[in-house]
Automatic annotation (TrEMBL):
This is Cupin type-2 domain-containing protein. It comes from Sporormia fimetaria CBS 119925. It comes from the Eukaryota. Residues 34-90 form the Cupin type-2 domain. InterPro entries: Cupin_2, RmlC-like_jellyroll, RmlC_Cupin_sf.
Length: 222
């Protein structure tokens, strides 16, 4: 997988038995597309109810924000654990002008396996990176319902402000109701054939929901 015209390269690694996915990810910090993205807002704060997520930096640095605290990870930190229901996001540490800091950030990203159909896995990441490409490269506007639709299918939910009571549970309910139920009825689908290498797996996921089942067409193209 690649995103932003080669600014981000993702290679699939062999996963252990208890992990749903494992990726070797590289951010090229000098790439103009990544510089443009990094100069804007940070990636969306979110959480995963069902899976632990693991991050291990192998080259350079990576910023990980967890419940409002920023960690700058390096290879010496080993594997960093993000527990379920933890609000977090990760983003590159961009070099300052004239610095001799690292020009790329490389890390291993993996996640705990789960029996839930809607989870973080290769199908989700392929479609999420492709959708981001539509926005960054092709200039499409962000559609919040589409984001919530895709995040829900990837076992992820957009975080609400810390002052909101029962913020995580409420965010999950909103993700299901708006993303899956209303989004599905309005024609939003989380996975697309042209973005997915294992379309049968994507169809199997969508078939578990009556709101998304109609998109699980193994014969016709999107």
């Amino acid at each position: 997988m690649s995103a932003f015209k080669g600014a981000i390269i993702v290679k699939e690694c062999q996963s252990s038995d208890n992990r749903a996915f494992s990726f070797d990810t590289t951010f090229y910090l000098d790439h103009p597309r990544l510089i443009k993205v990094a100069s804007g807002e940070k990636p969306p704060l979110h959480f995963h109810p069902y899976q632990e997520e693991y991050i291990e930096v192998t080259e350079g640095e990576l910023a990980v924000e967890v419940e409002g605290r920023e960690y700058i990870l390096t290879p010496s930190d080993g594997e960093f654990l993000i527990r379920p229901w933890t609000n977090h996001r990760l983003y590159p540490v961009m070099p300052t002008a004239g610095s001799d800091g690292p020009r790329k950030s490389r890390f291993l990203l993996s996640g705990e396996d789960t029996k839930d159909a809607f989870k973080l896995d290769k199908v989700f990441f392929q479609n999420w990176y492709a959708y981001q490409d539509e926005i960054v490269v092709r200039g499409k506007k962000v559609d919040l319902i589409q984001v919530m639709n895709m995040f829900d299918a990837g076992g992820s939910y957009l975080s609400l402000p810390a002052w909101v009571p029962f913020r995580n549970r409420l965010a999950q309910i909103m993700g299901i109701v708006v993303g899956r139920w209303i989004g599905g009825l309005l024609g939003y689908q989380p996975f697309h054939r042209e973005w997915t290498s294992d379309w049968d797996a994507a169809c199997a996921k969508m078939e578990t929901s009556p709101f998304l089942r109609r998109f699980a067409d193994r014969i016709k193209k999107d």
